[in-house]
Design brief:
By secondary structure, this protein is α+β, with helices and mostly antiparallel strands. The chain has a single domain, classed as Roll (2,3-Dihydroxybiphenyl 1,2-Dioxygenase, domain 1). It contains three helices and four strands, in the order βαβββαα. The longest helix has 20 residues, at 82-101.
């Protein structure tokens, strides 16, 4: 085995892409290849690849896959300079929260790292 890449189901593809771009990921493949109504994307940051897919893209196929948010997933990440990365990520998160929700909500928002 050379790689293992999760395919994570999401309910909001634009927000997912924006969040992972803040963490340094870039879209390398998508369905469709062009346009804004993406139903699947592959994002890469260094040697890490994550795929995201909308629930709607499943249609009626694969009924065993639940069409709701939830579930558990732990990812163990090997990262050089983790303190610098976390400081950068927290700064982006707080700035985004302040911009979209107001300063009061940003102070009370949980951070999970």
């Amino acid at each position: 085995m050379e790689t293992l890449s999760p395919n994570i189901f999401v309910s909001n593809m634009p927000e997912t892409i924006a969040f992972y771009k803040m963490l340094g990921f870039n879209v390398t493949m998508s369905v469709p290849e062009n346009g804004d109504d993406l139903v699947w994307v592959m994002m890469v940051n260094g040697s890490v690849t994550i795929m995201f897919q909308t629930y709607e893209s499943l249609g009626e196929s694969l009924p065993e896959i639940q069409r709701k948010d939830g579930g558990s997933l732990l990812l163990y990440i090997n990262l050089k300079n983790i303190r610098e990365f976390l400081a950068h990520a927290i700064g982006l998160f707080v700035t985004t929260k302040i911009t979209s929700s107001g300063a009061a909500n940003a102070r009370n928002a949980p951070l999970y790292f």
